[in-house]
Amino acid sequence: MISRSARSGRVALSTATGTAALLALSACVPNTATTAGATSIAVESTATTCVVSKSTAPSGTVEFTVTNSADKATEFYLLAADGKRIVGEVENVAPGAPRKLTVKLEPGKYFTSCKPGMNGAGVGTARFTVTSSSAGAQRTGDEKTRAQAAAAEYVSYVRDQVSRLVPATTAFLDAYRAGDDATARSLYASTRAYYERIEPVAESFGDLDPEIDLREADVAEGDTWTGWHRIEKDLWPPAAANDGRPYAALTTGERATFSAKLEKDTARLWSAVNASGYGLTADAISNGAIGLLDEVANGKITGEEEIWSHTDLSDFQANLEGARVAYEGVRTIVVAKNASLATRIDGQFDSLEKQLAAYGSLSTGFTPYDELTKSQVKSLADGVNALSEPLSRLTSVVVG
Amino acid sequence: MTAKSGLSRRGLLGLAGAGVVGAGAGFAIDRFVVPADATGSAPSTIYPFHGEHQAGVTTAAQDRLHFAAYDVSDISRAELVSLLKDWSAAAARMTAGRPVGDGAIDGQKDAPPDDTGEALDLPPAGLTITFGFGPSLFDHRFGLEDKRPAALIDLPHFPGDALIDELVGGDLCIQACSDDPQVAFHAIRTLSRIAFGRASIRWSQLGFGRTSSTTRAQVTPRNLFGFKDGTANVKAEDTARVTDHVWVPRGDSAAWMTGGSYLVSRKIRMTIETWDRTALREQERVIGRSKGEGAPLSGGSEFTEPDFAKLGHGAVAIDAGAHVRLSHPKQNDGALLLRRGYNFVDGNDDLGRLNAGLFFIAFQRDPRTQFVPIQLRLAKNDQMNEYIRHVGSGIFAVPPGAAVGGYVGQTLFG
Question: Which segments does the entry list as coiled coil (chain A) (predicted)?
Answer without folding.
Answer: none
